[in-house]
Design goal:
This protein is α/β, with parallel strands linked by helices and 197 residues long. The chain is built from five helices and nine strands. 29% of the residues lie in helices and 32% in strands.
């Protein structure tokens, strides 16, 4: 099975376009084989974006979309919030698509290849992710705990996780190192927000 968090240089490219609207904002995303949710905007990522926009009350100036795929979360937030967003993924094809989509949607963003936070040197007001739960718990916790270390003072980490993929146990584990709360849930997915103690 080809996972979207791996690189397969031999995988045939079949770029397709996904049209998407949220409120008054219209987007076009290029997608391809070998990336997550290649044919449509996935429910969990959209649920995360909508929940964040509805519940966030903070002034946020720096954003990181970790495990960005072709860029849906970061590009949508950049356009709606009018903020710069950094976007990273280990998948080179996803990052290339992300760069195309930044230009297509005319947003202030930068995409680059990084194995989790290996190439990330900045700190952020917001780190947001639909993390790759299929990559295993070690990778998942590297996404989440590593994010806490890269937050500015009063910064927050937001992510979406399925109840079936260990939402309760992950939340419990994070509560030992940060302030963590479930913001919303729908169709078996939880939106969790964390900030350092």
């Amino acid at each position: 099975m080809e996972h979207y968090f791996t690189n397969n240089e031999n995988l045939k490219s079949e770029i397709r376009r996904i049209n998407f609207s949220l409120g008054a904002y219209n987007f076009v995303f290029a997608s391809d084989n070998g990336v997550f949710s290649k044919n449509k905007i996935d429910f969990a990522s959209l649920f995360l974006v909508k929940t964040f926009l509805a519940f966030n009350k903070k002034d946020i100036n720096s954003i990181l979309d970790i495990g960005c795929g072709y860029g849906f979360i970061g590009i949508t937030l950049s356009k709606i919030m009018g903020k710069h967003v950094d976007m990273v993924d280990v998948n080179k094809r996803a990052v290339h698509l992300c760069e195309m989509n930044i230009l297509e949607n005319d947003v202030d963003a930068k995409a680059f290849v990084s194995d989790v936070y290996s190439e990330v040197s900045s700190k952020y007001d917001l780190i947001i992710s639909n993390p790759p739960t299929h990559a295993g718990k070690d990778v998942l916790l590297a996404f989440l705990k590593g994010g806490l270390e890269r937050l500015n003072k009063d910064g927050e980490l937001w992510f979406v996780i399925s109840k079936d993929k260990g939402a309760k146990s992950v939340k419990k584990e994070l509560e030992s190192v940060c302030e963590c709360q479930k913001i919303e849930q729908s169709k078996g997915f939880w939106i969790i927000s964390c900030k350092s103690y």
